[in-house]
Amino acid sequence: MSQISEMIGERLRAKRISMGWSQEYTAEQANLHPTYIGQVERGEKNITIESLAKICSALHYPMEEVLKHMISDSSRNHIADQCYELIIHQPPDEQELLYLILKNIIAYKKKTRGR
To answer: Distance between CA 10 and CA 87 in Å, rounded?
Structure first.
């Protein structure tokens, strides 16, 4: 399938796992078939907007977050996109920790440049 289908599937899987949910439980909450959830997560199915809305609602995951940074654009910073992809797959507490680490590195670099 397409790279976008794979990215959406990875994001949905990461959110589901961070919540400690099985594919079966997620499917039940979204009123979809468990096999479909697996196919979406592996990027094997092109998800419909309706199904994406159901899964996002079940996971309490805003659709705009799932779709954020999906479209490649030559004017965008691809390193920043790669960092986003690494961080988005982490649980929320680890995302916060990674943010603080990055923030401290930037502050340290600014401080050492001023010496």
So the answer is: 12
Q: Locate 104 and state its tokens.
A: 């401290």
Residue 32 corresponds to which tokens in the numbers above? 């979809």
Residue where the block lists tokens 């649980």: 91
State pLDDT tens for residues 71-115: 655 455 678 777 887 888 788 889 899 999 999 999 998 888 876
Report the SS3 class of residue 79: helix
> 36 and 45 in contact (C-beta within 8 Å)?
yes
66, 8 contact by CB (below 8 A): yes
Distance CA 18, CA 84 (A): 17
Give the integer Cα–Cα distance in Å for 27 and 9.
14
The span from the CA of 53 to the CA of 65, in Å, is 12
Check whether 63 has a pLDDT greater than 80: yes
Cβ(85)–Cβ(95) below 8 Å: no
